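#lab-general

N.A. 3:47 PM
ok so I finally got the sequence cleaned up, no stray characters, all 161 residues accounted for. can someone with queue access submit it? mine expired

B.Y. 3:52 PM
send it over

N.A. 3:53 PM
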Amino acid sequence: MRFNGLVLAVACAALSACGGGDKAPSDTSAATTPAAGATTAVAPAAAPTPATGKWHDVQMVGDEKGYRYEPASLTVKVGDGVRWVMVSGAPHNVQFENVAADAKSQLMANMPNQLTELGSPILLNANEKYEMSFNGVKPGKYSYICTPHLANNMKGSITVQ
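B.Y. 4:20 PM
back already:
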């Protein structure tokens, strides 16, 4: 009981120390306005592009055989869509890793409801689905993991042709 009280007191002190302080100057125009003739390099955000090809299903499974995507490797064409279906062993998600910079923008644009950058929402219920399009995505291999089951080596990949 004393330990909980101590933790609460320290947390309150830390939070109160974060609030307040000196106010920043109200004139921030110099910091936000580019110099005359200067250009700012902002990459345009890619627009989501719906699937126009075939849909492929990947099951998310956790059972006595372990945690896995079935199939673990999948080859699709540009324009196809992938549907991950939570079968058992929840929670599951899809978290893409090591995506090349020139492919990241379109891949992210085609991922609805991202929980994290390049990460799907967590699926908790049987038959719950996560769908995304690979339309406009640069051909290549895209590796992904299940964040909650990374320690169980739950990995997959999609090769876009």
